[in-house]
Amino acid sequence: MAEFPEKKDPKSILRPVLLLSLVGLALILSAIFLLSPAAYSEKSSGEKTRATLDQTPLSSGGSAAPGVPANVEKPVEGRYDFRINGGQTFYKIMTLLGLPGSEIQNIARAARPVYDLRQLKQDTVFRIFTLDNEWRRMEYRFSAYETLVVEKDGGTAEGVKATKTELPHEEREVVVSGVIESSLYEDGVKAGADPQVMMNLTDIFAWDVDFTSDIQKGDTFRILYEALYVDGVPMSAGRILGAEMVNEGKKYSAVYFEGKDGYYDLDGKSLRRTLLKSPLRFRRITSYFTKSRFHPILKKFRPHHGIDYGASKGTPVESAGSGRVAFSGWKNGYGNFIEIRHNNNYSTGYGHLSRIAKGVRTGAKVSQGDLIGYVGSTGISTGPHLHYEVKIGGRLINPLSVKAVADVSIGKKERQRFAAVSAEVLRKLSGADTRVAVVSPAPSSQPGSEPATSTRRN
Ligand SMILES: [Zn+2]
After folding, report:
1. Could you give phi then psi for residue 220, rounded to 5 degrees?
2. Does the global pTM surpass 0.70?
């Protein structure tokens, strides 16, 4: 599966902005730009090194900064936002503020029941409020909806009080649908789906659809997934509960079934397929997968990265899984050879065939169990046998180590419950369930559709 640079994803760039606006919109609006201690040092040295920049607060507000003589009559307030990145730690921030080690430890100890300040997360913001150049309050939003609040409090033994505040949040179900214009990922995100959801979708259908070559313009998708909403805004995506894809005119469905923790088609068959135990019905193994084997013809030791099945000439060979033919023809010592790509990860190879079955050309689609050729002795071979190999991520592995999924479908006992679950998923996917938020694609990508807003119909 392709990797998508997270940094370039507009959502991850927006998230800190969103975070800021949620926590302190009013403060930002009323903030007056002031020099922070870090900004001071930058100015005096006249150099902007990366290290200095990392320590520069995002913004500061209030009516004065440390170092500026405080007005005796009016307490001077300040606010500092530290972006956590690189080697930024709580201890470093506090040291920057000039706090002694004992006080830093005292604060960390008081905060620990709520949040361990030694574990500040990347791309979060640590906020400090000051009064007359002394800290009086610290805020750290450590999850989508939880914020640690540390306050100076003379009433406690430590002089520090830590509490947790929570934004209103709820788990909702969301339906996103769209038509593919450029790629499933791009069009999914354009339609309003969380990028992670699109990645997970390709995992779910990995055995049915080759997302690198099969996806075509006009293919459609529909996804039902859980999403965490904070203050009415979708913050993160959870599990996919159901999905539908139409690829090259064929419809694929996936239903998440709790308890068996997997995805099934509407017939209750697992989508997490596996390769057949063997591409031959009747066989005996004559040579195993090994790093070193004495080659009877080449008369030397060579690795054997496959399995040899002894069988008589003409024995039918089946495709170990569904997929697309990546190679079909003569390949050196392999003789007549077929390679089939099953998904983005798996491929299988079949060598020394006497004949390749009709229609099994490079680029053709095959289903699991399809007849693809016949056992033979072409290429470098001592007698009729099938050389069978399996690749995962381009690396040859021992075919016998491929795990067989013991239970690939919903059993009789759970049929009824599964039928109820899949009916509900289908109803939600169709948009008929008004409790589910429906996110529609942007008008530009789909003329005549609703604007790209998250609407919750009740
Ligand atoms: Zn072999």
Report:
1. -125, 160
2. no
